[in-house]
Every structure is written in structure tokens, then in C-alpha cells.
Amino acid sequence: MPAMARRTTVTPSEFRKIAYLALVVSTLIVFTGAAVRLTGSGLGCSEWPRCQGTRLTPELHTHGIIEFSNRVMTSVVAIPCLLAAILAWRRRPFRRDLALIAATLPLGVLGQAVMGGLTVLYGLSPGWVIGHFLLSMALLVGCVALLWRATYEPGDRPRSPDRWATWGVRALLVPGGLTLALGTVATAAGPHAGGEGTGDIVPRLDWRGADTLDWAIHQHGALATILGLACVGVWFLVRARGLDPLAQNWMTAVCVLLACQGFVGIAQYSMELPAEIVWVHVALSALMWIALLVAAAAAGRIGPPRAGVEPFVPAPERELARSA
């Protein structure tokens, strides 16, 4: 291979590191975005893309620096996401599936930046804030999918013959996503509007009047309880059916994170929603979503075993084979 070609190609291991970095920074911006809101700095820079008036950077006050730092973080996120999209075409051997998934990452970052700008321009209106957070969760879907597929070559992972266990894990993504969405509704009705640090009045969800927040919290809590019970049930199912050990481990991680979420949720409700505890709750929700996505990926694809790949046999079938 010519020297120039070698310098411009990327090995699978190198590309996997880029995909991992994209996931890490895309998760970190969820944490920093929550910090902006919970410190009341959402309008620390009252305009977009400039900060204030003709100024691109903020004046030296805390809330402006916090909001501007989160904008800078968007640029940090864009670098590995853009690199992943570019280097997917230089990866050898080339894989079309990786190139297509990687192309969605810079689009997601661009959408985040635009959505964040509109959120500021519309004065942190709840609908824009909710959309901004959910777009971040969608970006995590792309990052996890890219990292997972970049970790394995086609045919490396055995297919799963166990439809019940595999679809059980996959089905958890539905209540998981709904729980996230209801959590944003509860936050949009709560006291942390994002403008208190700068003295701005930010509209809140109030379709049930003064009872809106309490109603939203209880609906979110009820759905989270259903999700938790479903996850525990699926955890028992994947262990009883002897699903892939990696899927079992990630389901354990999901259950542990949900237990932590439940504890933090009860604590923040009892303590009347202190900002620090709410931030922990948001951070755990992002980690739980990632764990759920990885568990669904680890559950495998359903189908007959591939040639040359040792099939994975569920536990009940293994027991029958031993006793035969």
C-alpha cells in the first residue's frame, strides 16, 4: 500500500476509539446542559449565535460564563462526531453500515445547536427545552449504535434463537423512552426554569394549574415504577433463558441504575427538588438510557446461526441436550 494511502486510512481499532469518544462527549453535554438549567443560567447569553448584542463572548458574570461554556461544549462534541463521519469512509475494511450511522452524528449535533439557539430565542419555552433534551437522547442512540457496531465485525456475534428473551429486552426501550419524556414534562412544570439566576421570568407548564407539577411527578413516578418492574422481570427472564452473558450483565446494570434513580427521585421529591439532586437525577437518566440501549444491542439479532459462528444456545435447550 502506498505511504500516502496508509496515512489516510483508519484501522477498526482506531475508528472504535473515535466512536467511543463521540459517545463520551455526547453524554457529557447532557450533564453540562442540565447544569446550565439548574444554576438558572439558561439566559446567561440572551441571544444566539451571539451572546449579547454584538458580543460573541459573555461579560464576566457567572451565569453568562456557564451558558457560554455549554455553547463551547457543543463545539467540543462536534469534533469527534464529525471525525467519525469522515473517518468512517477511510476505515479499512470499509463498512457501509458504519458510514451511514456515523453520518447521523454531526447532523444530530447541528440539530442540537439549532434547537439550543431556538430555546434561547424563545425564552426557554418548555416545549423547546423538552425537544432539546430529547434530541440529546436521540443523539445517544446514534452514538451507542455506532460504537456497538464498530466493536464487532459482521458475523462476529452469534444470532439469538431465543425470541422471548431478545424481544423482552428490546421492548424495554418503549417504556424507557416514555419515562424519559415524562421526566422532561415534570421538569418543565417544576421550579427550575433556567432563568432565575438572571432574573428572567420563564413560562412553565401549567395546564392543571397549581397541581400541574404534582400531577406530572406522579405520572412520571408511576411509569418509572412500571419500567422498573418490567426491567426486573426481564432480568429474571434473560437469566432463566440463559441469554448471552453480555446481555445479562447489561440488564443488571440497567436494574442497578433504575434502583439508584428511584432512590434519588424519592429523595429529591422529599427535599422539594434541590437543584443538586435534580442534576444527579438527570445524569443518571442519561446513563440509564445508554445502558438500556446497550442491553438491547447485546440481546442480539434473532435468526439462524451463521456459517462458521458457534451458535448461542439458551439455557433450557442446553439442559435438555445434557439430559438426552
Structure, described:
The chain has helices at 3-7, 12-38, 62-87, 96-121, 126-151, 163-171, 173-189, 212-240, 245-270, 275-298, 315-323. It has 324 residues and is mainly alpha-helical. It is 69% helix and 0% strand. It has two domains: 8-154, no CATH class; 155-324.
Supply database-style keywords.
324 residues, mainly alpha, 11 helices, 69% helix, flat, disordered N terminus
Unreliable stretches, pLDDT < 50, 5 or more residues? 1-5, 315-321
How many strands, which pairing sense, and closed or not: the largest β-sheet? none
Task: Tell me the domain tally.
Answer: 2
**Rg from C-alpha positions?**
22 Å
| CA(first)-CA(last) distance | 55 Å
Q: Please bin the fraction of helical residues.
A: 55-70%
Mean pLDDT: 86
Silhouette: flat
Beta-strand residue percentage: under 5%
